[in-house]
Write a structure and sequence with these properties.
- The chain contains three helices and four strands; from the N terminus they run ββαβαβα.
- It has one domain.
- The strands form two sheets. Strands 1-2 form a two-stranded antiparallel ribbon. The protein has a two-stranded parallel sheet with strand order 3-4.
- The longest helix is centred in the last third of the chain and has 16 residues, at 70-85.
- It has helices at 20-30, 44-53, 70-85; strands at residues 3-6, 9-12, 38-41, 57-60.
- A hairpin with a 2-residue loop joins strand 1 (3-6) and strand 2.
- With 92 residues, the protein is of the alpha+beta class.
């Protein structure tokens, strides 16, 4: 993980496959905790699920890249079902 600054905000890209330890390690590197950390991601079953497991507020974005690996494309179909059934708002 590499800490960067974007417009005055500290940020770390987390690659943890949805495991809470990756988010906790990122908070440790940033010197933050669940009370002052927000996670932004584009996949429910990894990004948002992992953030929820770490106790973080999260924001689900629309996917940026239309060309994705096949396993992600398949997950997107399941995400559509979840999003249809789940009320809009912030997940925690």
């Amino acid at each position: 993980m590499k800490k960067t600054t974007l417009k005055g905000l500290a940020a770390i890209g987390v690659i943890a496959g949805g495991a809470a330890y990756g988010y906790k390690k990122a908070m440790e590197l940033l010197g933050t905790d669940v009370s002052n950390t927000l996670f932004v991601g584009d996949q429910i079953f990894t990004d948002i699920w992992g953030a929820k497991g770490a106790g973080l507020y999260s924001i689900l974005l629309e996917p940026i890249n239309p060309k994705e690996e096949i396993q992600i494309v398949l997950k997107r179909y399941l995400e559509k079902i979840v999003l249809f059934c789940y009320p809009k708002g912030v997940w925690r």
